[in-house]
Design goal:
The protein has a single domain, classed as 4-Layer Sandwich (Deoxyribonuclease I, Chain A), CATH 3.60.10.10. Strands 3-4-2-1-15-14 form a six-stranded mixed sheet, covered by helices on one side. Strands 5-8-9-10-13 form a five-stranded mixed sheet. The chain is of the alpha+beta class and about 350 residues long. The chain is globular, with a radius of gyration of 20 Å.
Length: about 350
């Protein structure tokens, strides 16, 4: 069984309100890339992945006039993908949903959120609230309770592999620390940046509590998506001690595992795996970072055969396949990450 996570930059701009794929010469939301170029590139990448399950980060929008699931299923039909069915969880206001595409001949999947439903004025509990609710935590040890919400509620999916009967839980996440919008001075930028990063770490704690609940129940679990954080990535990391990646991974017998995260944590200097590439216009250079992960519980780690970042330059197959290499660069500023599981 192949599982993938893929952040598709502004996937939403490639569809009209009826969910039809826009194969046009007009510009996409990606710099110097037309919609036709990005659509074709994504078709090549998704076809090459040939995944049974794809967690799509920044999936097309769901709103009054647009729907995520029909758009993704239209895209799958256009390129005859096996992962032709789609589902999503709680929608958000960012035009960047979290959704799952899957092959219904291989797996059964359903949105299955856990935790108490949000209730106005409900007191905090020991468990993790549902991801469309509010998490109460003291963020700065000032004896004052802070209320944290997800701008992009994680997607919780119950998955059954049909051939083996293996059941597992998948949590698709897109954590993001907001830029310090509105700040006009260095001190304001620093204050807002620290406050936003603190909220992101609180979201990681919330997510880790859900992980702990699943592991305590004996569930096979996978956390995958774009965590927008990692060791050495943030200049304020030393203020907090741990990145959100480290919080979600956990420690000891209940630690989740991702080999790329482990490598980055062990090797603070020198070459590290990367899954995203951004152009920094003020510095006239590209920044590469490890942002995308497929973390698994100990029982699934025993069945994991291969993790792979489909990096156009670092992966030799991608580099030696010119059409795929170019497609990966045109499709998104992130590259897919896959995990192959042997399920019997």
């Amino acid at each position: 069984m192949r599982v993938a996570t893929y952040n598709v930059e502004w996937f939403d701009s490639l569809f009209d309100d009826a969910g039809r794929v826009l194969v046009e010469d007009s510009w996409s939301a990606r710099h110097n890339i037309t919609k036709a170029m990005q659509v074709e590139a994504l078709g090549i990448v998704f076809t090459a992945l040939d995944a049974d399950v794809v967690m799509v980060i920044e999936a097309p929008d769901t709103s009054r006039s647009r729907k995520t699931v029909p758009a993704l299923e239209a895209f799958a039909a256009a390129f005859e993908l096996r992962a032709r069915k789609a589902l999503m969880g709680f929608s958000n206001d960012t035009q960047q949903e979290i959704a799952l595409m899957y092959d219904p001949d291989v797996v059964a999947a359903r949105h299955d959120p856990r935790g108490p439903a949000p209730l106005a004025g409900a007191p905090p509990g020991d468990g993790a609230p549902r991801f469309d609710g509010t998490f109460r935590i003291d963020l700065d040890i000032d004896a004052t309770e802070d209320k944290v919400v997800f701008s992009k509620p994680p997607l919780e999916v119950a998955v059954t592999h049909l051939a083996s009967g293996q059941q597992m839980r998948m949590i698709g996440a897109h954590l993001k620390s907001k830029a310090p919008h509105g700040a006009t001075s260095r001190d304001e930028i620093m204050r807002l940046s620290i406050a936003n990063r603190r909220k992101q770490l609180a979201q990681a704690i919330w997510l880790r509590r859900r992980v702990d609940e699943h592991l305590a129940a004996g569930d096979a679990l996978m956390v995958l998506g774009d965590l927008n954080d990692g060791p050495g990535l943030d200049e304020y990391e030393h203020l907090f001690g741990r990145s959100s990646v480290e919080i979600i991974l956990g420690t000891g017998d209940t630690a989740l595992f991702d080999p790329h995260a482990a490598q980055a944590l062990e090797r603070r200097l020198g070459g590290q795996p990367t899954s995203a590439r951004f152009f920094i216009s003020t510095e006239h250079r590209y920044l590469q970072a490890l942002l995308d992960y497929v973390m698994v519980s100990p029982d699934l780690r025993a069945k994991a055969k291969r993790w792979r970042i489909w990096h156009p330059f670092d992966d030799p197959v991608c580099w030696n396949t010119p059409d795929l290499c170019d497609a990966l660069l045109n499709a998104s500023d992130h590259f897919p990450v896959t995990l192959d599981l042997e399920l019997t």
